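Q: what sequence does this backbone want?
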């Protein structure tokens, strides 16, 4: 029996990774009912990371927290044994704010609340998917939620958000959640920006969060001050460490105070879902995401999956909304063929609205085409 592993990322703005996988699988099995099709939705460490873990059998925990500017938010994290997977975007992500951006006042406090919940319930290995942050606060809010006190010159607690950190003069770690010292923290991300400087969190990502020229100056000053008080409290300086600028500097605070380590996003997710085991016996792997382009080649989930499949000697084909990779890039990524929704429906809005049915159509086409011979190579 031909075994096909369907392992796409989300089609952003259209379908989740699980929905993409299900639609492709439906098309494959309707075109060839004898095929054994397994779905393994993936993510690159940003939004969708928790969903990928849950789809792989992790338990889903629902928790009430607060969004970037304090609004009530209900989110989930995934647990398996003493390990937990937490996702920044679903708690304090930029999309939660919509058009109401707040570059100086947004914080990561809600993410800290979720982490605290996981610690309270026994998690001692916490994987945090970074990406899509609404704030530039260097994880100050996250740490405040875990009991850290950030004080100004008068001994008063500094308000939440990146901007107020300009007045920070000391950090009191005495109230930090006691479970932190016995917990391993892993940050899943793929950026190498530092916290400070022209390639730092503020300069590179601040404008995406609504920061204007004056805001950018204020935030850089705030992050500089924050780095100084954290160094005084911890004895370590991660402000120039590659990756510390991830998610508005969330990586910086997590490295310096929680002792977190950084790992590539897709590698982390593939390990979480035991992807290597899922490859066993597969004759064909189908990857996918909304847009396949040169950016996909740099740490994005589909190429990570393709690399793993290629290392195992399994042929790969891709499904996407639109394809901007040429034959040279396809070959370099180990992709045998690419099917794009745009080839079936050029109108972007109709393509997004009908993505599931278009994916089912592509699934049927794959099962009926000469590409079916790819999946028989191991037979």
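A:
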């Amino acid at each position: 029996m031909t075994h096909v592993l369907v392992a796409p990322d989300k089609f952003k703005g259209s379908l989740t990774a699980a929905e993409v996988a299900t639609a492709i699988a439906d098309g494959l099995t309707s075109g060839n009912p004898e095929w054994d099709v397994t779905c393994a939705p993936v993510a690159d460490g940003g939004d969708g990371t928790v969903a990928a873990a849950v789809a792989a059998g992790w338990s889903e925990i629902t928790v009430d927290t607060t969004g970037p500017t304090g609004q009530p938010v209900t989110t989930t994290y995934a647990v398996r044994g003493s390990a937990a997977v937490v996702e920044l975007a679903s708690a304090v992500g930029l999309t939660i704010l919509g058009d109401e951006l707040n570059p100086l006042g947004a914080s990561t406090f809600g993410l800290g609340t979720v982490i605290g919940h996981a610690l309270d319930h026994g998690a001692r290995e916490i994987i945090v998917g970074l990406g899509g942050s609404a704030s530039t606060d260097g994880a100050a809010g996250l740490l405040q939620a875990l009991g850290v006190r950030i004080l100004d010159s008068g001994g008063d607690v500094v308000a939440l958000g990146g901007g107020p950190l300009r007045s920070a003069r000391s950090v009191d770690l005495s109230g930090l959640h006691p479970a932190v010292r016995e917990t391993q923290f892993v940050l899943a991300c793929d950026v190498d920006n530092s916290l400070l400087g022209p390639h730092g969190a503020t300069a590179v990502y601040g404008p995406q969060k609504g920061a204007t020229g004056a805001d950018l100056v204020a935030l850089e000053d705030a992050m500089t001050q924050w780095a100084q008080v954290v160094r005084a409290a911890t004895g370590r300086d991660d402000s120039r460490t590659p990756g510390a600028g991830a998610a508005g500097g969330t990586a910086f605070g997590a490295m310096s105070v929680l002792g977190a380590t950084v790992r590539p996003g897709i590698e982390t997710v593939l390990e979480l879902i035991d992807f290597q085991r899922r490859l066993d016996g597969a004759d064909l792997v189908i990857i996918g995401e909304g847009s396949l382009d040169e950016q996909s080649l740099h740490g994005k989930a589909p190429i990570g999956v393709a690399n793993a499949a290629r290392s195992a000697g399994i042929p790969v084909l891709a499904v996407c909304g639109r394809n901007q990779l040429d034959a040279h890039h396809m070959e370099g990524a180990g992709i045998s063929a690419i099917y794009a929704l745009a080839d079936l429906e050029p109108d972007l809005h109709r393509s997004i609205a009908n993505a599931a049915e278009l994916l089912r159509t592509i699934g049927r086409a794959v099962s009926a085409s000469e590409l079916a011979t790819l999946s028989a190579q191991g037979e």
